[in-house]
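ARCHIVE CARD
Drawer: 12
Card no.: 0347
Subject: one protein chain, sequence and derived structure
Cross-reference: see card 0346
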Amino acid sequence: MPVDPDAPVRISAFNWVPPFAQGRVRDLRPRWALEEAGIPYAVRKLDVMAERPADYFHEQPFGQVPSYHDEAVSLFESGAIVLHIGRDCEALLPAEPAARARSTAWLIAALNSVEPFLMQLATIDIFAAGEEWAKLRRPGVIEMIDKRLSRLSDALGEKPYLDGERFTAGDLMMTTVLRMLDGKGLLERYPNLVAYKARCEARPAFQAALAAQMADFEERQTARM
């Protein structure tokens, strides 16, 4: 769905981030979920380089993105937001209770069992590049990531998606997490994970969400020229 400034659903996002983060900021997650659900949304754009407006901390206590607001609720944390969007959308959360529970479990696994290890590598490679402790720590982090990817690869097996034949919110979240490894040469050790990630990224809803996020950054860059 196109971004609609008059839509009752609104998320927050940054209007610019450095190139390494473009296409990977966490507002991509609710954007993708909203696209899968066919729900138009507005965007509150924040300047990543400026202090957050005082009222924004009522939306997101830590000043991060995304926050979410609709006619019924205000939320923060991308996992909670995606689960809320999926509440009435079988494309994200199946109606059958056991399948819905498994989808929820995979979403939480992406955030709790996989992402923290990948974030350690991002910290080392981006924010602590060249520091001696980072050089010493990196091999151990790579080893931990590889163990997580091995377990994930085994769980996926030859299935198209984590819970079988259908895409769910668990796949949405796992894909956004795995994208943190782009260019690292780690995911490529597991061909089924490479194919899985590509399959999820090929979804029209993902492509629309990514284009919308990138358009916000391009707008900021154009304004600076």
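Annotation on reverse: The chain has two domains: 10-91+205-214, 97-204. The longest strand covers residues 10-14.
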